[in-house]
TrEMBL record:
Names of the cofactor(s): pyridoxal 5'-phosphate
Family in the record: Belongs to the DegT/DnrJ/EryC1 family. L-glutamine:2-deoxy-scyllo-inosose/scyllo-inosose aminotransferase subfamily.
PANTHER family: DTDP-4-AMINO-4,6-DIDEOXYGALACTOSE TRANSAMINASE, TRANSAMINASE
Keyword Acetylation: no
Gene Ontology molecular function: transaminase activity
Keyword line: Aminotransferase, Plasmid, Pyridoxal phosphate, Transferase
Name of the protein in question: DegT/DnrJ/EryC1/StrS family aminotransferase
Highest taxon of source: Bacteria
InterPro entries: DegT/StrS_aminotransferase (IPR000653), PyrdxlP-dep_Trfase (IPR015424), PyrdxlP-dep_Trfase_major (IPR015421), PyrdxlP-dep_Trfase_small (IPR015422)
Pfam hit, one: DegT_DnrJ_EryC1
UniProt keyword Transferase, yes or no: yes
Protein's organism: Streptomyces goshikiensis
Gene3D superfamilies: Aspartate Aminotransferase, domain 1 (3.90.1150.10), Type I PLP-dependent aspartate aminotransferase-like (Major domain) (3.40.640.10)
Length: 369
C-alpha cells in the first residue's frame, strides 16, 4: 500500500524573511582578480599558457594521470567515455539516480546508454550491490556525492571503465587515504561557480591511459585530427584557467575551512539530530546535509532555518531524480525516493565567514523534533 502523502508544513516564502546567510557563494580574492587581470592584459583570451599551467598543476597533484582542461564537468564526463572508445556505440554506462542531470547528458551525448542505479543510504553514491554481475557494464560513473567517497573498490570488478565524478570532492581522500580522482581509470572535476574551486565554468579531465588522453586532444585542438570527424568545442579559455589555477593553489586552505565549518556544525547539533551520514576524516565536505525522519520533519527544519535568515535547501526534488527523468518506476529506487524527502542542506562554502557560520550553528542548536 502506498502511504498517504504528508501534508507540507508551512515554510516562510523565500522573500518573506531576510536572508543573512546564503546557501552558496564563491570566494574571489585579490589574488584571483590579479591573476585574471594579468591574463586579460597578456592578450591570451583563448586556450594558452595559463590553461597549460593549470593542466600541469593537476597532473602534478594526481600523478601519474594525464590532465586535460575542458569547458565543463559535463564535457569532461563525455570525453572520458569517448577517450576510452565508448562513443557512439551504445555502450552501457551506470550512473547514480541521485545526481545532476548532467550525468545523463554526458552519457547520451557520448552516444552511450545510461543504466540508472539506486544509491546507498550512507553516501548517496551508486550502490554496487545493485549492479548485476550477469549483465556486463561497459563503464560506471561513480559520483562522490557531497564529497563522500563512492565505494570504488566494490565497483572496480564490475566494469571495464571506472570514471570518478569528483565535481563535488576536489581535495578529498577516501577511507584508505587515497586522493579522490586518482583511483579510477579517469576522473572529472568541475569549476562551476558553486564548486570547491570556482571559475564560473570549466573543468578538468584526468586519464590514466595516455592513448585515451591523446584521443581527447582531438576535441581540444582541431589541428590534432588525423581524419575529419565532427567535434564540439570543449576548450577552456586562459582567463578562466587563470582564475581556476589561482584557487587551485590554495585548495588545501579551502578544504581546511570546509572541514572546520562542518565540525562546528556537528558540535552544535542537539541530541535528537544526527550528523550527516558519510562524513569521515580526509573528506572535503561539499554539502552539509542533515537527514530528517521524513518530509514533515524536513519541512519543519527548513522552516526553522529560513526563519532565522539561513538559506536551507532540500537540494534535489523527486521529479529531478534521474530515474524519474527517464520515466522509470520509482519503486525500483527506494533509497533515492526517501532521501529527497529527508535532506536538509545548510550553508557550507568557501566564502562563508566566521560570523555566518556562528549564525548557522546557533540556529542548528534549536532544530525542532
Amino acid at each position: 500500500m502506498t502511504p498517504a502523502p504528508v501534508p507540507p508544513v508551512p515554510v516562510p516564502a523565500p522573500d518573506s524573511v531576510p536572508v543573512s546567510v546564503p546557501h552558496n557563494g564563491p570566494l574571489v580574492t585579490e589574488d584571483d582578480i590579479a591573476a585574471v587581470t594579468e591574463a586579460l592584459r597578456s592578450g591570451w583570451l583563448a586556450t594558452g599558457p595559463r590553461t597549460a599551467a593549470l593542466e600541469a598543476a593537476f597532473a602534478e597533484r594526481f600523478h601519474p594521470l594525464h590532465a586535460s582542461a575542458v569547458s565543463s564537468g559535463t564535457a569532461g564526463l563525455t570525453l572520458a567515455l569517448r577517450g576510452a572508445g565508448l562513443g557512439d556505440n551504445g555502450a552501457t554506462v551506470a550512473v547514480p539516480t541521485y545526481g545532476c542531470s548532467a550525468l545523463l547528458d554526458a552519457v547520451l551525448v557520448a552516444g552511450c546508454t545510461p543504466l540508472v542505479v539506486d544509491v546507498t543510504e550512507r553516501t548517496l553514491g551508486i550502490d554496487p550491490g545493485r549492479l548485476d554481475p550477469a549483465h556486463p557494464i561497459d563503464a560506471v560513473i561513480a559520483v562522490h556525492t557531497h564529497g563522500h567517497p563512492a565505494d570504488l573498490d566494490a565497483l572496480r570488478p564490475k566494469t571495464a571503465l571506472l570514471v570518478e565524478d569528483c565535481c563535488q570532492s576536489l581535495g578529498g581522500r577516501d577511507e584508505r587515504g587515497r586522493p579522490l580522482g586518482a583511483i579510477g581509470d579517469a576522473s572529472v572535476f568541475s569549476f562551476y561557480a558553486t564548486k570547491v574551486i570556482a571559475a564560473g565554468e570549466g573543468g578538468m579531465l584526468l586519464q590514466r591511459d595516455p592513448a585515451a588522453r591523446d584521443h581527447v586532444r582531438g576535441y581540444q585542438d582541431p589541428g590534432a585530427r588525423e581524419v575529419y570527424a565532427p567535434r564540439f568545442n570543449h576548450r577552456l579559455s586562459d582567463p578562466a584557467a587563470a582564475l581556476a589555477l589561482s584557487q587551485f593553489r590554495r585548495l588545501d586552505e579551502i578544504a581546511a575551512h570546509r572541514r572546520a565549518v562542518a565540525a562546528r556544525y556537528t558540535a552544535a547539533l542537539p541530541p535528537h539530530v544526527a550528523p550527516p551520514p558519510g562524513l569521515a576524516p580526509g573528506q572535503v565536505p561539499y554539502r552539509y546535509c542533515l537527514r530528517a525522519a521524513g518530509r514533515a520533519q524536513q519541512q519543519r527544519w527548513i522552516g526553522h532555518l529560513r526563519a532565522a535568515g539561513i538559506a536551507a535547501d532540500p537540494l534535489i526534488p523527486a521529479r529531478h531524480l534521474l530515474h524519474r527523468q527517464l520515466g522509470l518506476e520509482p519503486r525500483e529506487y527506494p533509497v533515492a525516493e526517501r532521501v529527497v524527502d529527508s535532506t536538509v542542506s545548510v550553508p557550507l562554502f568557501a566564502a562563508l565567514t566566521e560570523e555566518q557560520a556562528d549564525r548557522v550553528a546557533e540556529a542548528l542548536t534549536g532544530l525542532p523534533d
